[in-house]
């Protein structure tokens, strides 16, 4: 199924996506999944991110997969989020599904 074929909920996230807000983010994601089969995370372009945000999102992706739900980013990772992905090595040898999720890019073959 595609995102357009399901009920979708946009989850607007705070500009601080750090360990201090991890529980708030987790709660918002779970509330989104309670309301819809798919959620779209609206990450502010000027967001202050750390590794805990990546962990929450990766956990949410696993949850979505196990529950036959979907999760996506409204926009490709940029700014602080992109910097954390790069520093953490998440973009090194990235698989196609992760590339599409984080960067909205499909690998040309």
Question: Describe it for me?
Answer:
It is a single chain. This protein is an alpha/beta fold and 109 residues long. The protein has one domain (8-103): Transcription Regulator spoIIAA (2-Layer Sandwich). It contains four helices and five strands; from the N terminus they run E-E-H-E-E-H-E-H-H. The strands form two sheets. The protein has a three-stranded parallel sheet with strand order 1-3-5, covered by helices on one side. A two-stranded parallel sheet has the order 2-4. The two termini are 24 Å apart.
What is the element string, with H for helices and E for strands?
EEHEEHEHH
- Tell me the span between the first and last alpha carbons: 24 Å
Name the structural class.
Answer: alpha/beta
Beta fraction? 15-25%
**Contiguous runs where pLDDT drops below 50 for at least 5 residues:** none
Give the number of DSSP strands. Answer: 5
pLDDT average, as an integer? 93
CATH top level label: Alpha Beta
The CATH architecture can be given as 2-Layer Sandwich
Name the overall outline.
Answer: globular
Output the CATH topology.
Answer: Transcription Regulator spoIIAA
The major β-sheet equals:
3 strands, parallel
Helix proportion of residues, in percent? Answer: 40-55%
In short:
The chain is of the alpha/beta class. It is built from 4 helices and 5 strands.
Notable characteristics:
single chain; 109 residues; Transcription Regulator spoIIAA; three-stranded parallel β-sheet; two-stranded parallel sheet; 43% helix
